[in-house]
Structure formats: structure tokens, C-alpha cells
């Protein structure tokens, strides 16, 4: 619960963690609303914490916010970060015909991140396997940073995907016979399959895939977080599209 009305005596009776948690909350309210009332309340709190009044540039505000979170022993997910106003707006770019199938993903954070990437690159629809967290999940919504209503999504079981959707299936999987991402040319329409964080893509889907691709890695781990790997592929798709649309030199 955020304390926005407080007496000096009551505030100073709180633990240091509680004090800094309140400071972070009031600062977040000010950043979101722009209301001078919250700035005045924050500066009153800062004085009680022996801090100088906060500078008004975004970098100073962000650093002060994370100072309070650190002192409150809070490790915030990205959706708790202050966001800089970079004039987010609805895009006029159409979604392209490259859809994504999320096969048995477990992490709602990974799903939300993938949704955010799909919207950023305007790839296409997202199909969830029945066990994958969907946009009904609050963690998916938060991690998508508000993009989940902008992307077409639905739950589809693997058999329906194979038998109903006629686009070629492209599997992103770590296999010795997989084609390196940099040497693979994506068709105009396809379904990119992304697999489970632990065991990858189910065998029945791999058997039906027209192509299997991988991201070549040099490190000892030989794998990336699934959302990070997806972002690499999404960028390569966008790069190929841009190159195809550019006039030949």
C-alpha cells in the first residue's frame, strides 16, 4: 500500500525498507501522472531521507527511483521500470505473413517478451499450444508492455496446426543438421515454431517442419533464452524483408 499522506513522525517510525518503498511509489506516481502534488510529496520524503531535491531530467529521475528500489531490497521486473516518453503510437505498418507457434512454453515472461517482439517487427499472428501461457495471464500482459491487444492470438493444438494451416513450418531448434540462421531465406509466409525452454520442440512438430534453423553460437552454453533467440530471428526476418524491398544498387 502506498503512503501518499503521511506525517513526519509516522514516516520516520517506519523501517528504512518501508521508507524507500514509499519513496519509489510516490516517484513512480509523479512520473506517470506528471502531477506537481506527487513531486511535492516526493521532495518532502527525500528531505526526510537526507537526499537533495531530485533533478527533473529523466536520467536523474530513473537513477533516484532505482536507488529507492535497491534500498527497499526490491528487484523490479522490466514492467516496473520508469519508461521514457518516446512518443509510442499505433503503427501503420501492416503485419506480415510470418506467424509464430509457441510450443509448450512454460514462462509467462518469455511469452510476453515474444509478443512484444512480434508487435515491434509486425511479424504476424501468434498461436499458443494448449499448455502455453496466453494473453489471459497477467504476467504475459505486463511483460508484453501493453502490446498484447495489438497482436492476433489464439490457442491451437499441434494437430490442428499441422492439418489446418497450410503455411510451411519453420522450426527454431538446436540440431546438428539445422541450417544456420544467416544462410536461411525466409519465405513470404510461414509459421515459425518456438519450443519449450527445457526440451525444445515436440518431435511430432519437428517431423512436420519443412526447415529447421538454428542460431550459430560460439560460447560454451550453446543456447539462448527462448525470447532472446526469438528476437534474433525476428530481426533477421525484418532485415531480409527490408533488403528485398530496397532497390538494387
TrEMBL record:
Q: Tell me what organism the protein belongs to.
A: Aerophobetes bacterium
**Keywords, A to Z?**
Methyltransferase, Transferase
SUPFAM superfamilies hit by this protein? alpha/beta knot
Every copy of the tRNA/rRNA methyltransferase SpoU type domain together lies at: 101-235
Q: Which PANTHER family match?
A: RRNA METHYLTRANSFERASE 3, RRNA METHYLTRANSFERASE 3, MITOCHONDRIAL
The record's listing under InterPro entries reads: Alpha/beta_knot_MTases (IPR029028), rRNA_Methyltransferase (IPR051259), SpoU_MeTrfase (IPR001537), tRNA_m1G_MTases_N (IPR029026)
* One Pfam family in the UniProt entry: SpoU_methylase
The protein's name is tRNA (Guanine-N2)-dimethyltransferase
Highest rank taxon of the organism: Bacteria
Q: Which GO molecular function entries does the Swiss-Prot or TrEMBL record give?
A: RNA binding; RNA methyltransferase activity
Biological processes annotated in GO: methylation; RNA processing
Amino acid at each position: 500500500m502506498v503512503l501518499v499522506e503521511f506525517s513526519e513522525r509516522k514516516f520516520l517510525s517506519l523501517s528504512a525498507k518501508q521508507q524507500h518503498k514509499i519513496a519509489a511509489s510516490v516517484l513512480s506516481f509523479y512520473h506517470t501522472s506528471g502531477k506537481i502534488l506527487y513531486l511535492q510529496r516526493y521532495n518532502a520524503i527525500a528531505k526526510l531521507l537526507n537526499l537533495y531535491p531530485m533533478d527533473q531530467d529523466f536520467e536523474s529521475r530513473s537513477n533516484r527511483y532505482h536507488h529507492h528500489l535497491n534500498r527497499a531490497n526490491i528487484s523490479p521486473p522490466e514492467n516496473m521500470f520508469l519508461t521514457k516518453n518516446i512518443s509510442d503510437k499505433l503503427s501503420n505498418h501492416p503485419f506480415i505473413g510470418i506467424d509464430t507457434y509457441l510450443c509448450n512454453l512454460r514462462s509467462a515472461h518469455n511469452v510476453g517478451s515474444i509478443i512484444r517482439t512480434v508487435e515491434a517487427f509486425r511479424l504476424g499472428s501468434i498461436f499458443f499450444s494448449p499448455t502455453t501461457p496466453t494473453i489471459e495471464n497477467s504476467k504475459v500482459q505486463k511483460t508484453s508492455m501493453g502490446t498484447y491487444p495489438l497482436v492476433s492470438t489464439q490457442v491451437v493444438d499441434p494437430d490442428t496446426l499441422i492439418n489446418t494451416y497450410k503455411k510451411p513450418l519453420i522450426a527454431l531448434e538446436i540440431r546438428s543438421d539445422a541450417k544456420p540462421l544467416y544462410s536461411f531465406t525466409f519465405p513470404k509466409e510461414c509459421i515459425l515454431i518456438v519450443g519449450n525452454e527445457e526440451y525444445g520442440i515436440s518431435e511430432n512438430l519437428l517431423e512436420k517442419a519443412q526447415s529447421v534453423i538454428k542460431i550459430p553460437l560460439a560460447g560454451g552454453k550453446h543456447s539462448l533464452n527462448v525470447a532472446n533467440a526469438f528476437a534474433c530471428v525476428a530481426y533477421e526476418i525484418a532485415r531480409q524483408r527490408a533488403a528485398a524491398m530496397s532497390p538494387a544498387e
